[in-house]
Write a structure and sequence with these properties.
There is one protein chain. It is built from eleven helices and seven strands. The protein is α/β, with parallel strands linked by helices and 257 residues long. Strands 3-2-1-4-5-6-7 form a seven-stranded parallel β-sheet, sandwiched between helices. It is globular, with a radius of gyration of 17 Å. Strand 4, helix 3 and strand 5 form a beta-alpha-beta unit. The longest helix is centred in the middle third of the chain and has 23 residues. It has one domain: Rossmann fold, CATH 3.40.50.720. The structure holds nicotinamide-adenine-dinucleotide (NAD). Nicotinamide-adenine-dinucleotide binds next to helix 1, helix 3 and helix 8.
């Protein structure tokens, strides 16, 4: 039995992941704004620190994996800055707080959720990506507010994918036995893409996303990948960004290697 912390545990991909990990015998501690064992706001630095401390306490300091699903979507009513603070800094800072605890296990796992929008959406603001990667949170939030949620979303997720690839291979992560990877889902049918609070025109636009498989993904399909990435079966993976998008990335970037 592994002790695993999952953020964004109350809804969508996070909830499906909690359900699968528990059903397969793991001890899971959920973090979310409400409806989870640990209630915390990961958009704030205090919330991230408190959530990490509570998660470590809940597993008596023996942590085997962390999965960061908490996030805000581009179609929500939240500002671009808020998206950046949850999606990028709410993941990176939380994982950094947990890193010394993950390092105690002989082999441990951390997974961030990026997005296939990183390779499919045009005109991603690189200055926002750079501000995230340079850890300039207040500047990144200001830039996110300026560009708005639709460009801020892929920027926050591109920064996250790059952070994973940069950090995963360092002594702090793989040198300490921690496999750090990311998943890049395509359009998944969750409240983020089909909630009643979404702008109906923007929500409709999602269906024009080219998906060779011809359908949206299901949260359980991403949960299955996250289960793999937090298991010993993923022992050779470090810094991988795994697209699970029904073929969209392969379709649009065929020779981009
Ligand atoms: P969802 O809206 O169903 O779940 C997101 C969860 O994050 C919610 O429970 C929410 O309360 C929580 N959350 C939001 N802000 C928070 C905060 N400040 N502090 C703590 N928790 C917070 O969405 P989902 O589709 O399950 O998304 C999960 C992850 O997958 C997100 O990071 C999202 O960006 C990513 N993703 C989703 C899709 C998709 O099509 N659904 C595609 C690519 C990536």
């Amino acid at each position: 039995m592994a002790n695993i912390v999952v953020t964004g545990a109350a809804s969508g991909i996070g909830a499906a992941t909690v359900e699968l990990l528990r059903r397969t015998g793991n001890n899971v501690v959920g973090v979310d704004l409400a409806g989870a064992e640990i209630v915390a706001d990961l958009s704030t630095s205090t919330g991230r620190t408190q959530a990490a401390a509570a998660a470590v306490e809940a597993v008596d300091g023996m942590l085997h994996a962390a999965v960061c699903c908490a996030g805000l979507g581009p179609l929500s009513s939240h500002s671009g800055g808020k998206l950046v603070s949850v999606n990028y800094f709410g993941t990176v800072d939380f994982l950094e707080e947990l890193r010394p605890w993950l390092a105690r296990a002989e082999q441990s796992f951390a997974v961030a959720i990026s997005s296939s929008s990183t390779s499919t959406q045009p005109a991603i603001p690189e200055n926002l990506v750079a501000a995230c990667l340079d850890d300039r949170e207040s500047e990144a939030v200001t830039l996110g507010d300026k560009v708005g949620a639709i460009p801020a979303y892929p920027a926050s997720k591109l920064a996250l994918a790059r952070w994973v690839r940069r950090q995963a291979v360092t002594p702090d992560w793989i040198g300490a036995g921690i496999r750090l990877n990311a998943v890049a889902p395509g359009v998944i049918d969750t409240p983020m893409t089909s909630g009643s609070d979404l702008d109906p025109n923007l929500a409709k636009a999602i269906d024009f996303y080219p998906v060779p498989m011809g359908r949206r993904g299901r949260p359980e399909e991403i949960a299955a990948l996250l289960q793999f990435l937090t298991s010993d079966a993923a022992s050779l993976l470090s810094g991988s960004v795994v697209f699970a998008d029904g073929g969209t990335d392969a379709l649009l970037r065929q020779d981009d290697w």
